[in-house]
Amino acid sequence: MRAMTVIPGEAGSAELTELPDPEPKEGELLVEPLYLGVCGTDREILDGLHGEPPPGHERLVLGHELLGRVRDTGRLVAGIVRRPDPVPCACCANGEWDMCRNGEYTERGIKARDGYGAELVTLEEDFAVPIPDELGTLGVLAEPASILAKAWEQIDRISTRACSAHERVLVTGAGPIGLLAALMGVQRGLETHVLDRATEGIKPEVVKALGAHYHSGDITEVSKGCSPDVVVECTGVAELVAGAMRHTAPGAVVCLTGVAASRNLSVDIGALNNELVLENDVVFGSVNANRRHFEQAVTSLREADRDWLRMLITRTVPFERWQDALEKGDDDIKVVVEFSQP
Ligand code: BGC
Questions:
Q1: Would you state the torsion angle of the CA atoms of residues 161, 165, 170, 176, taken in this order, to the nearest 10 degrees?
Q2: Per residue in 107-146, pLDDT tens?
Q3: Is 3 touching ligand 1 by the criterion CB < 6 Å?
Q4: Cβ neighbours for 312, distance < 8 A, ≥ 6 positions apart
Q5: Which residues contact residue 174 at a Cβ distance below 8 angstroms, ignoring those fewer than 6 apart?
Q6: Which of 5, 247, 7 is nearest to 115 (CA)?
Q7: Ligand 1: distance of its center to the CA of 41 in Å?
Q8: Given the CA of residue 144, which atom of ligand 1 is nearest to it?
C-alpha cells in the first residue's frame, strides 16, 4: 500500500512511499481511509518545523483528520488523534489525554505515531469514533470539530463562575477552526461575530449563511463595537491574540486555539493586566480533544445544516496528488484528500 510520508525536520522530504499492508493486532480495526482533511499542522510538518517519527523510523506517515470505513463491517469511523502517555499522568489515566500533564503523549500523524494518510490503516477500537451514515463525507470534519467541542466545553465550564450567561462571541479567523467555532456559538444561541482579513470570496458568504456577523476590519474596532463576552481566537497571529484580550465585556472568557510562528510584539502588559483584573476576565489556551469531545463534535455536525457544512470543504484532491492539498489557495477553507477505495 502507499502512504503519504515525510522525514520530520526535513523540508521537501514528502513523498508517496510504498509500505507493507498493516496487520491489525488484538483490539484494532482495519480501516480503509475515504477522506483525509489537511490543516496547518500538516503544513508545518511538511515544512520541517514540526513532527516526530515513530521510534526507530526515519519517516512519519502524515494525516490526522480521518474519515474511513472499517473493512469488516463497512461502518464509517473517524480516528482520535492523541494517545495517552505511557506513565500515565492523572489526566491520561482518566481518558483526558487532551490535558496530558507530562507531555509524553503521542499523536497519530504528528508525534511519534504514524498517521492515517495511507491506503489502509489500523485503528485501535477504543480510538475509533462512529460516524453516522447520514453525515457521509462530512464526517471528515469530525476531527477539527472536536478541537472546538473541547474549547467550547472549557468555555462553558469557566462561564459557570458568574451569575449571568454570556451573550456575544467574537471568533477571530474564518478558516475551518474559526467557522466551526462560530457554528458552535450559533448552536448555543449566542450572537456570533467572525473577524477575518478576507474582504471578498467565500468566507463572508459562509459566515452570513450561518446567521452570524462578518467583519474584516481592525480587531480593536470590532471588539469595541460588539463588546464580546466570549472570544475564540483561531489564528495564533500575535496582533489578533493581543487584540482578543482587550476591549471585551466584563467577565469575558478568551480562548486561544491557534499556533503560529513566534513574533515580537510590543504590548502594554500593565494595561492588559489592569483590564483582566478589574473585569474578572479569563484567558486560557486549548488544544486537542478526547473521546467525549469527538462525540460532542459528531452531535454538533449532525445538528448543523448539511448544505452549510458542505460549503466548508472547498477543495478535494486525489490521494496521488496529496501534496497539492497542502498548497494554500486564497479562498480555501478545508481541503481534503480523497482515496479511491473500491
Ligand atoms: C490537531 C490536534 C493536535 C495539535 C498539536 C492539531 O492540528 O488537531 O489534535 O493536538 O495539532 O499537535
A1: 80
A2: 999 999 999 999 999 999 999 999 999 999 999 999 999 9
A3: no
A4: 141, 176, 179, 180, 206, 333, 334
A5: 182, 194, 195, 196, 198, 203, 206, 207, 214, 333
A6: 5
A7: 7
A8: 8
